[in-house]
Amino acid sequence: MTSSSAPKFGVLMVNLGTPDAPEPTAVRRYLKEFLSDRRVVDLNPILWKPILNLVILNIRPPRVAKAYKSVWMEEGSPLFVLGERLRNNISLSLNVNSQTNIPIVHAMTYGNPSILEGANQLRKAKANKILVLPMYPQFSATTTAAVYDKLMAGLKKCPSWPDLMLIKDYADHPLYIQGLVESIRKQWDEQGERRHLVLSYHGIPKRYADNGDPYPKRCLLTSRLVAEALGLDESEWSHVYQSRFGREEWLQPYADVTLRSFPANGIKRINIISPAFSVDCLETLEEVTFELGDEFKACGGEAYNYIPALNDSDAQVALYCDLIKQNSKQWEC
Ligand SMILES: C=CC1=C(C)c2cc3[nH]c(cc4nc(cc5[nH]c(cc1n2)c(C)c5CCC(=O)O)C(CCC(=O)O)=C4C)c(C)c3C=C
Ligand SMILES: [Fe+2]
Ligand SMILES: [Fe+2]
């Protein structure tokens, strides 16, 4: 297909979303949309709305805005900037080499650019088949299903539907596992040692998993495949969950509790990787890189390094191109 003809399909890459600016007002707007989604917080709105509006949206934005400021890039929020770089590299790899014209857009479940804007952009590019690629390696109803909800809500007003293909997750995709493994090996080579490996995932309330959300099973699958590929025995790696929010129990083991216990148990030198994040963001650049590291060192930890997300690396571009090619086969890629 030449670049002048209509595309056979378009790709809608979707990530969580991020504030437009590292300022309390923008953070408040973002958190309000995000935390009002019942996929994320499933409490009865009669109970939750007053807590959200009167307590959380008053207390949290100034503190979180400060955290965003500490990681903000010249071009914007890391989640968005790094996602854009990835989108661009995928487009180059997919289209330039094979002389196709597949439009790839990058949208957010919450905030800007919205999923509806992304879908409209694809429509303008004349793509009437859409491959939806949520940027979450492990399916969770709190993230991946929320992408589908937003898309369907946007299409409610649309009289003519595009053909849709929804990618559910890629927790065990060989190129994903290979990318993580290569990043870890590269770190070991640079450090000249094989430190204890911590695989830390964003948590969800335990109740969601008890009610059937497969997320922890998908995370454990990723961890086991990485450990297996690296030839690690059980004592050489740990699987934990970070980013707790609110008072109820979240998935365990908790990252902070586990890391604080390590030095007393003889684990003083660690590397930490966060496989649930396709690109680096507030949670990895601030919470994992600094907060967790500080807690570990305060308890006697000696060496602590965060291994970056796959971001716009060749490994991640190869993975996403493969996901796109394999899942669009029926549309004759
Ligand atoms: C309140 C419940 C939350 C659930 C459930 C949740 C699940 C979840 N989130 C991600 C990925 C990201 N979360 C990010 C930030 C973030 N997450 C929550 C809360 C829940 N997440 C909050 C309140 C925030 C905002 C920051 C804060 O106030 O502490 C981000 C970073 C966004 C950015 O702008 O950089 C990502 C990415 C996953 C993968 C997940 C469940 C699987
Ligand atoms: Fe989150
Ligand atoms: Fe956090």
Strand-residue proportion: 5-15%
Overall SS class: alpha/beta
- Report strand order across the widest sheet: 2-1-3-4
Helix share, percent: 40-55%
- What is the CATH-assigned architecture of the domain at 174-307? 3-Layer(aba) Sandwich
Low-confidence stretches: none
CATH fold-level assignment of the domain at 174-307:
Rossmann fold
DSSP strand count: 8
Count of helical regions: 11
Rg: 20 Å
SSE arrangement, N to C: EHHHEHEHEHEHHEHEHEH
Q: Cofactors and ligands present?
A: the ligand C=CC1=C(C)c2cc3[nH]c(cc4nc(cc5[nH]c(cc1n2)c(C)c5CCC(=O)O)C(CCC(=O)O)=C4C)c(C)c3C=C, fe (ii) ion
User: What is the typical, i.e. mean, pLDDT?
Assistant: 96
SSE layout and pairing:
Blueprint: E1 10-15, H1 24-35, H2 45-71, H3 78-98, E2 104-108, H4 115-124, E3 129-134, H5 144-155, E4 163-166, H6 174-191, E5 196-202, H7 206-210, H8 215-230, E6 237-242, H9 255-261, E7 269-273, H10 282-298, E8 303-307, H11 314-327
Parallel strand pairs: 1-2, 1-3, 3-4, 5-6, 5-7, 7-8
